[in-house]
Write a structure and sequence with these properties.
alpha+beta, eight-stranded mixed beta sheet, six-stranded antiparallel beta sheet, 28% helix, 21% strand, binds flavin-adenine dinucleotide
Length: 533
């Protein structure tokens, strides 16, 4: 319980210097239990008392949904053990070439150069173990792109029994939440990362973890942020923060109102962000005077549409092409998901495209679409057919009629694509030309002819992994006000922070990596502040 029992109701008045009764106090409050747990862990290890408040009934946020839980931390010790010859300067040159000057170069530098120290710091604690999962960078033509994937790290799996009761309190996997699948006995990917963080954090007695406790306001004085209001059991509890508040509460992808307000394309029903990510902490930061940026941006992806009407982040296509409402291709289908999603966003914005778009494929793998990672598993094929999402026909003109696209266009699109397959070159969209395009086809061309009837079409929409606009920070994760000055006592990380990557997604593992790293740096800054350094 955060609220003191002696008080009947909530707090009557909270304003500058106006809180007379605190319900509780701590050095650091961390809102959000995804990447923010790294901040909680660091603060605890550096000797600060920590209160983690999580809005929902489970820890882990979208971080725990990630099957890979990848982190883009170039040159980190796990990669060095794997023999990578990468350098931080090369990684930075790549990152900066991808992001440009859309975000402060110093912030970019902090991210790229900071990850290796973070992994070193974590590996000093036996709770953490990291491994390599090669994953090529997403802009393979840029200078210093890492084509062998050796900038990408994952947590080693964790048997659930090592966590005891807490294992039942970790979000995900998506199939459990959306389809009622059983909870696996071993935590992998993002769940393993969250599990390891929780077990490391609970080794410190001066940390408390609170579920169902959203941070809804910040308490400010002339000195900056001095506390936070957390809702718990229908009551508002005022928590004094002796050192600072870290907002690592994800994005606002699940709030239709905020999506509308900031012009984020796509629907909240199609986001993959965890359900608690409603933007409450972000709004609290804005009310405390924080500057915001990148508010219409998200981490995009093509969305495989399920019978419940929701389109889910999908990747790993072993065949097929995407066509628009005119029956024409519009993108490199094997490219990175964010680049595909961004193309959809751009095409919709300029009026060239409407949703849904279609994956056209033949029968060589049967009628199930050649999509190997739907992130939410497919259900029975009949349900997609009944919902009008999957269509089959003996000929392409019949298929075109079934999905309402121009038959001549579809026939010529497939004919042209098949010619590209035969020639080994996609003259229109360069499919297969970058390393990432070939990652799911063993380094071979990812282009597969469409010539084995019957022909099929599967409906796709636009999905996202979460919004990436948020509070503007400096390189210590200190939140800046609209004049560019740090707001004392206020920090942000992850999707609550305006993304270091600006409008692009340079490599798999950056959303989680940035959330972890800036949470860590926030905690180090708070520890230095506490120590008077
Ligand atoms: C299937 C899938 C796979 C992915 N794979 C990867 C990958 O391999 N690598 C990668 O880098 N990225 C990946 N991503 C994206 C990545 O998971 C997210 O962008 C990232 O985890 C966001 O981290 P975060 O800490 O900002 O937020 P989250 O992990 O979402 O955590 C935010 C937490 O804050 C809580 N919260 C919200 N509001 C409040 C409040 N007011 N008070 C208290 N708590 C609050 C939420 O309930 C949530 O638990 C993937 C996404 C998906 C869906």
């Amino acid at each position: 319980m955060l609220c003191s029992d002696s008080r009947d109701g909530g707090i009557d008045v909270i304003h500058s210097e106006g809180v007379t009764t605190w319900d509780d106090e701590t050095d650091v409050i961390v809102a959000g239990s995804g990447g923010g747990l790294v901040g909680a862990y660091t603060a605890a290890r550096e000797g600060l008392s920590v209160m983690v408040v999580e809005a929902t009934d489970e820890f882990g946020g979208t971080t725990a949904y990630s099957g890979g839980g990848g982190m883009w931390f170039p040159c980190n010790p796990a990669l060095q053990r794997a023999g990578s010859d990468d350098t931080l300067d090369a990684a930075f040159a790549y990152f900066h070439a991808a992001v440009g000057d859309r975000t402060p170069v110093e912030l970019q530098r902090t991210y790229v150069y900071g990850g290796t120290d973070l992994i070193t710091y974590l590996e000093q604690d036996a709770h953490f173990e990291f491994d390599v999962l090669p994953w090529p960078d997403y802009y393979g033509r840029l200078p210093h792109a890492r084509l062998d994937g050796l900038r990408h790290t994952v947590s080693k799996p964790l048997p659930a029994e090592r966590l005891g009761e807490l294992a039942q309190r970790i979000r995900g996997p998506l199939d459990r939440e959306r389809l009622g699948a059983p909870t696996p006995k071993c935590l992998v990917g993002g769940r393993a990362l969250i599990g390891r963080l929780l077990s490391a954090i609970t080794a410190y007695p001066h940390v408390s973890l609170h579920l169902n406790s959203p941070l809804v306001e910040l308490v400010t004085s002339n000195d900056g942020v001095v506390g936070a209001v957390v809702e718990q059991h229908g009551r508002r509890c005022a928590i004094r923060t002796r050192v600072g508040a870290l907002l690592a509460a994800g994005g606002f992808e699940n709030s239709p109102a905020l999506r509308r307000r900031f012009g984020v394309p796509g629907d909240a029903t199609d986001t993959m962000g965890a359900p608690g990510n409603l933007g409450l902490a972000l709004e609290a930061g804005m009310a405390a005077g924080a500057a915001i940026d990148l508010m219409d941006q998200a981490w995009w992806s093509p969305g495989f549409t399920h019978p419940d009407g929701r389109s889910a982040f999908s990747l790993w296509f072993t065949g097929g092409i995407f066509v628009n409402q005119d029956g024409k291709r519009f993108v490199n289908e094997s490219g990175p998901y964010d680049r595909i999603g961004k193309t959809v966003v751009d095409q919709i914005a300029c009026g060239a495209m409407t949703l849904p778009f279609w994956m056209i494929y033949d029968d060589r793998e049967g009628r199930v679409p050649p999509v190997k990672a739907t992130n939410v598993s497919m259900v029975e094929p009949e349900r997609y057919v009944e919902a009008g999402l999957w269509h089959t026909a003996d000929t392409l003109p019949e298929l075109a009629a079934g999905i309402g696209v121009d038959a001549e266009n579809l026939v010529s699109t497939v004919k042209r694509f098949n010619e590209f397959v035969a020639a080994g070159v996609d003259e229109d969209f360069g499919r297969g030309e970058e390393a990432y395009d070939r990652v799911f086809s063993g380094g071979q061309s990812p282009m597969v002819p469409i010539d084995t009837p019957p022909y099929h079409a599967a409906s796709f929409g636009l999905s996202d992994l979460g919004t990436k606009g948020g509070l503007v920070t400096d390189s210590h994760a200190r939140v800046l006000d609209t004049d560019g000055n740090p707001i004392d006592g206020l920090y942000a990380a992850g999707n609550t922070m305006a993304a270091v990557t600006g409008t692009v997604y340079p490599g798999g593992g950056i959303p989680i990596g940035a959330s972890m790293l800036f949470s860590h740096l926030a905690a180090l800054d708070m520890a230095a502040k506490r120590a008077g350094r």
